[in-house]
Amino acid sequence: MAVQHSLELANDSCDDDGRQIRTGTLWTCIAHIITAVIGSGVLSLAWSTAQLGWIAGPVSLLCFAIVTYVSSFLLSDCYRSPHPVTGARNYTYMDAVGVNLGRKQTWVCGLLQYLSMYGTGVAYVITTSVSMRAIQEANCYHKKGHKALCAYGDTSYMLLFGAIQVVCSQIPDFHNMEWLSILAAVMSFSYSSIGLSLGLAKVIGDGRIKGSIGGIPTATTAKKVWKVSQALGDIAFAYPYSLILLEIQDTLKSPPSENQTMKKASRAAIFITTFFYLCCGCFGYAAFGNLTPGNLLSGFGFYEPYWLIDFANVCIVLHLVGGYQIYSQPVFAFFERWSAEKFPSNGFVKTFYTIKLPMLPAFRMNLFRLCFRTAYVASTTGVAMVFPYFNQVLGVLGALNFWPLAIYFPVEMYFVQMKIGAWTRKWIVLQSFSIVCLLVTMVALVGSVEGLISAKLS
């Protein structure tokens, strides 16, 4: 009886695949998605709208929202294979690609996915330092006047954020991050609401809507093309979360089936983020017109009330603490799992030590995890210090990962999963969708790389 009871307890604490039981719900899933999506990208959308103009700007935001939803719909059915409800679980994006598309494409996917996650970590270090510096500058402008020379460096803030992430990176895995994602989601709502409210207030105060159909004019047609391309890259960075979608889906409990919950969460989260994106982009452009800053809350289009600007930037910092972990935890999990399989008897890799600090719960520490995660955080911080260019970095990252990770792999896996034959109606529609997105990605990538090179040389 005792043995039977212990077996029942073990079964109750394990899921159908023998892993720790999943407890994620629709609401925690939405929180994870919002934490991943509403990040540093939202702050550049007013600038992107200003480059594209009053017609192309909002239309582009809506088109990317639709593309993101289609991508998430296709990818959520790939969590289990071969059947989307009863098949074996694919714990990561790479697992799904390996099962459906083979080993070679898995390597390509892994390279792009983890490069994108690493790059997002770099972007979050840059954004956080910009927001922390903006707090100091806002206080300076309030005391000395708006024309005062209030210039501060980024390096110390990047190092401080890196130190915080060294500590946060010791969170074991995605399943232990629900509280941090919920906090980050609340912060993202807060600063997005402040940004759109300040933009709306300025439009009402000025009594007119600034901007034009063609967007910000430039000296030459070539320069306008580069700016439009970079704006598309910034929007592409702001939306997709496909590279961590399956990792989020792996936290969900069932029933109902994981793909049903994921589709509902994606629909809700994308609707919410699109509303905020349109408001931030459009109200920001309407408020500043041709003088729209690259970063809505730290570019100092707004100076007062300075305390509200400070609060918004604090919210950004707190959100990006969680956002950095959302994109870093899958990298940690992959490398640590690979190392454990490669060195199964290595004590440095496998041994855990229990540490008990006063007034805190016991904590299990692994020296390999400590060293690897600390080195990872240090490297993202170092790269951010070399390339501290907010809009240009976002554009390059968005263009690099948009088509392959958000479009190509989900479409190809969906063909295999649902056994869709070549030249059928659904095949033609999805392939056309993929080709159009590829062309947009190529345009965005060229313009964003040009912008990054120009910023580095200037």
UniProtKB/TrEMBL annotation:
Biological process terms in GO annotation: amino acid transport
Domain Amino acid transporter transmembrane: 23-453
Keywords, alphabetical: Amino-acid transport, Cell membrane, Membrane, Symport, Transmembrane, Transmembrane helix, Transport
Transmembrane segments: 26-47, 53-75, 149-167, 179-201, 268-288, 308-327, 370-390, 396-416, 428-449
Keyword flag Transcription regulation: no
A GO-annotated cellular component: plasma membrane
Location in or out of the cell: Cell membrane
Ranges in a coiled coil: none
Family statement: Belongs to the amino acid/polyamine transporter 2 family. Amino acid/auxin permease (AAAP) (TC 2.A.18.2) subfamily.
Name assigned to this protein: Amino acid transporter transmembrane domain-containing protein
UniProt organism field: Tetracentron sinense
Lineage: Eukaryota, Viridiplantae, Streptophyta, Embryophyta, Tracheophyta
